[in-house]
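Teaching assistant's notes for section 4

Start the section by putting this record on the projector. Ask students to predict, before seeing the second block, whether SpaA-like prealbumin fold domain-containing protein will look compact or extended. Collect guesses on the board.
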Amino acid sequence: MKKWLRIFFLVTCLIGLTSIVRIQAHKREGVIRTAALQDKSGGDVKNITSHQPEDLQAAMTLKVPAGDTVIALENQEHAQFVREEITDLKPDKDITAEIDQEGRLLLNNDQDQAQKVEVVVPVKVADPLLMDELQLELQVVDKNETYGLATLAVKADSDKGAATTTENDNNSNHDNDKPATDNNNSNNNSSSKVTSSSKSAAKKKPSRKSQSAKQRSRSTKSKTPTTSSSKSASKEAADDDADADAAPATKISRMSQAVDPADRLTGSAIDIYRGQVQIGSWSDEMTIGGTLKEEPGVELHKKSAGVNGSGVGSYYKNENYKTHYYISYQQKDNAASYAIAFKKDTSLGGKTINVYYPDVGAYTTSSGSEKLDKKMGAIIEISNLVYSPKLTGGKDAYIDFSSNFYSGIIYNGIESFDLDITFTNEDGTRALKFPEAEEKTYRSYFTFGSLNGNVPGDNEWAGTKSGREGILSKPTTIEEHAGGWYKGVGEGVYMQYDNGEYLPHMGENQWGDFLGSPNYEKGAVSFPLVGKKHEFMLRSDAGFTWQSFSTGSIIPLAPEKPVKTVDRSKKFGIENNDLHGATINRDEDDIDSFNYTVYQKTYNIPDESIAKPNRITLTDTLPDGMSTTLESIRLYNTDGQVLTDFVPEELRETVAPEELGTIAPGDRGKVTIDGQKVTYELSDKEIEKLDFNGGYFAFQITIKIDDDFVGTFKNKANVRFYSDKDYDWNNDTNEVVTHLNRGLTLRKIGDNRWNPADTERLKDVVFNIVGGDDQRRIETNEDGEIVLEKMNSKEVYTFTEEVPEGYVSPQKFTLAYNENDNRWEITSGSAQIEITNDKNSQVITVKNQVERGDYQFKKIDGTDDTQLAGAEFIIRSKSGKYLKFDDDGKMSGTVDTPEEATRLKSFAKETTKVTGLPYGKYKLIEAKAPDGYVVGATHKFTVSKDSGTKVMDIKNDPYSLPITGGRGIIWFIGLGLILTLSALALWRTHPRGG
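Reveal the predicted structure now:
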């Protein structure tokens, strides 16, 4: 018997446990099915850095029940959802998602049943993360459900420190045979600083003098690693003093550095979205390092441009490089440059030059930012130096560095060298990592321009060791060679006439060797910037070369859409647009002309691109009722000055000087006027003269209005940028509208649906007019107006409106002319119709009211129908607008977010009533439940004519234990308990051994 009782007891326990297991199974069928942390590309993340960690995203698969669901990210001190609109729901099944101001994910399922959906939410991680691992957890609010995300390992940043020795540091260890380390650097790497005035001098145009063509040759020597100098600080200081006494004309310095530029990079790399060298960036405190400067006979010359260019000069004479700032560099007061000079007997094997520039441009780490918001530095390393065979005895070889990184370098007596560039953050401690290509397109490039081949055998070269193909313009004067080299073979024209104009440079093998030339890109090659270190090569077959540095694209860029204005004056500026949308009564305003102006924004040369479009064309089809002539057309430069005019010579003395351009008649573009169509194709000279600096240049056309024209002028133009079939952009301007009328206008307005205090003009509203034999059916235009033409003052007119949808009661009125007062009058109609009293410009205004209704509700207990106070609600329209109400419950407007919406409170004895809602569908969303109750579901309601007569009951349930599973689970629980109790009873009635 005892054996059977044991078996019975075990069976009943198993049945009871099965019930519990089923309950737990039901509990696991929650909202969050799967969730994982990813990087921005969608890849799985297993670890993250402690400082400047990358932004992540949470990819979730959810089963969203009907109504509202809220998911919160716990541990918000470590990570938060990014508050922004979420649009990438997959699939979109009437489910909306957004992040509220508390950083919670709000989901709304508009269907009546649960739906499965995938959603990706951006996550911002705290900086710094002072922990070994990061564990984040998702929680479904108001539901007993949590979901733990995978634990991420937190990696500390590199502990590699910067060298900190100073001029008074005695730890140089120069007598030891130990290799130099980061903490064992000697003092001979500290740099004297350049202090620059912020006062700017006028920029000088690059002027290529005939000292020799610029060229480069390929080097086959391997790069040798940088070695540490062994000279002590005390000896270096003594050398500095001796050099200063011996060279009164210029500062000759050994330039001892606390930290060699090559040793600055102590932090982890920064992943960036885009970086750019900028022509206006200056490094007033440069650092010069490397091993070459420690060789005997090597000199470092520091020069200044002085004030107003007093220290600027050319390098025709070999000695000038020691004392002058180069004439073709970018100019400003006290701009600095440094020249490292050495004789031909100086050994170059394994020697390097390192230079740190604190400010060369800007970068951004954000894919959504157009603005480059962080300052960018650069470290360059020059190695594998090879003497030029054209360096004669007694002459110096040297490399000259401008403090303006865009201005680049001059190298003389050197045939070739390797040039490695690492862009950095502002303090130079962290390298910038440029991204790989996306769909074969790179975000940043490095461009070498002015690669000449003017003289046979004297060519200039640039190359890359990255293995990536260089990018050339179409057409180009650059030849691709083996080993990553690109050779300039064209004629770069830089010479000028006495009047400052450049010699002809548009031939097949020619290009203008100056910024702003319409074909400057023909002599350039661009290389993609990818990763941290960018390895290039330079070569000159001529022996002397100036090479600028740029990240500007070698291809012209897509222009922004042009902007059109209409104005009485000829003043330059987008703000001059006073006739757009204006209504002019020609009976009182003798206007007979005005000006259409098309503003085209430029990109920045050389920061964004070095290339201009080959052709720029304006096309403008004028409306009927207006005309123009050739002399009424002008071209403005970005500084607001007229560049081109077409005023005949015999009339020029009658025109104000500021309306005359500087382009010679033979260099003007081609203008064609064919009926109403005006076409203006710019000439090469005009494109050359246009300043591409990020500002606007403009086409302006003065038009004449026909004497008898009454109506509306609508106009837009088109601007085309063209270089070849791959770079061809046609962009239309915005449309400008000007109304001209005489006497009488009908204007239709209605109160604003969502802001009742305001009105708006109504288009496409139909009126039927009857007066004598005159019967017409007219319709309001885009501005809600109709110009009433050919009205017979002898007739009485009846106007009948066809009411627009959503508005109440059509309007009907009669109109007659009062000959005594010389004006039209309303002789019958409602108070919603008005007419102005100005007899020369009368306007009839017909106003309609939006159909509006009411809604009322009360809050009750879901168990006993007791009316509840303390609940708070907000209302959302079908279009997603949140409503605001005044103190009387009348709708006063809408807002974009639920936090700004008016909260409607429930009362214990009164109903909550709102009025003035436009007819339509709405949602009543409970924002706060009464004390002791859970937040209720969202309620849908419709406002109509009779909606305000009913009171909606909104039920709430008090807090209770969570119910899991279906109703059938009760039977399993009951059966399990009965069997368990029965087993215990039987056990007790049969004692042991019975």
